[in-house]
Design brief:
Strands 1-2 form a two-stranded antiparallel ribbon. Strands 3-4 form a two-stranded antiparallel sheet. By secondary structure, it is an alpha+beta fold. It contains five helices and four strands.
Length: 149
């Protein structure tokens, strides 16, 4: 690698580090632009004024630094809603199936739970697999487990 290439790589790394520092700063601050999801799933942009609307959005984690992150949140909510159509509440002394992702095998599967997990969606026997087929394994991996191929 020659000096020009090393300099270019260093500048790129500095830009990446500056972006990380920017992300770590407290957000939002007065007049920062932020994105949020409206009640009809539209992604909108606003300036932070720390008013009751801003605080309400912040209280439910509906404040995003970028439009892309807000759009991702909308898709995640849609996938969760689609999965819930196949689900049921946890039943004590019954087979409760949940979706799991094996990171080593890169595989989505279902297994039983005897105890409740925070945030889990529970299924009857066979319903998790049905949901995987209808909703789509790649969408579930991406929006529920945060895995992209």
């Amino acid at each position: 690698m020659n000096l020009q290439e090393e300099l270019k790589a260093l500048k790129q790394r500095i830009a990446e580090l500056e972006e990380l520092v920017k992300e770590e700063q407290e957000f939002p601050q007065k007049y920062d632009f932020y994105w949020y999801v409206d009640d009809d799933t539209e992604v909108l942009v606003k300036n932070w004024h720390n008013n009751e609307y801003d605080q309400g959005r912040l209280s439910i984690d509906n404040i995003f630094r970028t439009k892309e992150k807000a759009e991702f949140a909308v898709e995640k909510l849609k996938v969760e809603a689609e999965l819930r159509k196949f689900s049921r509440p946890f039943k004590r002394d019954s087979l409760n199936f949940v979706m799991c992702f094996d990171t080593e095998e890169d595989e989505l599967y279902s297994e039983t739970r005897r105890f409740m997990n925070q945030g889990s969606i529970y299924f009857e026997l066979g319903q998790a697999e049905c949901a995987m087929n209808v909703v789509g394994i790649e969408r579930i991996k991406k929006y529920i487990f945060g895995v992209e191929d």
